[in-house]
Structure formats: structure tokens, C-alpha cells
Amino acid sequence: MKYSDNGRIGVVLPSGIMALEREFARHMLFGFTANYSRITLPVSSSNSASLWGALARMDAPLASAGAGSLFSG
Q1: Domain for residue 18, yes or no?
Q2: Could you tell me if residue 71 is inside a domain?
């Protein structure tokens, strides 16, 4: 298998979840690698509505960069 045969998955994570890379790696399919990026969400309060609002504001820049939506369903 050559490096170019590997699948790559981009993962955007909030900055507060520190152990997720290790947990995610346990479930990766053979031949895939994950690239992680940490972000700081500008949330004024930690309630559910403000968190979903911050995620919705991130969706447009990701789409303009060619990435899929954060939301599915």
C-alpha cells in the first residue's frame, strides 16, 4: 500500500475534549488516517442553544472551503 492509497478524514474538535484523538484512533478503519484541528468556540454561555449557534456559524466557512456540513439529518 502506498501513502497515496490511504484515505484521509478531517476532524474538527472543540478545544476542551483532550482524549478524543486516542479514542477516535481505536475505531479507525485500516488504511485511513485522521487529521485533527482544534477550535475555540466563541460561546458566551455554556447552554445548548449558544453551542448550537456557534456550530451553525462555523458551517458556512467549512462549506466554502469544500468541506461537508457539520450537520447531518
Answers
A1: yes
A2: no
Longest alpha-carbon distance in the chain:
47
Residue-wise pLDDT for 19-39, tens only, equals 777 887 788 888 888 888 777
Q: Domain for residue 24, yes or no?
A: yes
CA-wise closest residue to 21 among 1, 35, 31 = 35
21: cell is 484523538
The set of cell numbers assigned to 64 is 466554502
Question: What is the pTM assigned to this prediction?
Answer: 0.46
CA gyration radius, the chain: 15
Query: How far is residue 28's CA from residue 23's CA, in Å, rounded to a whole number?
Result: 9
User: Domain limits at 8?
Assistant: 3-64
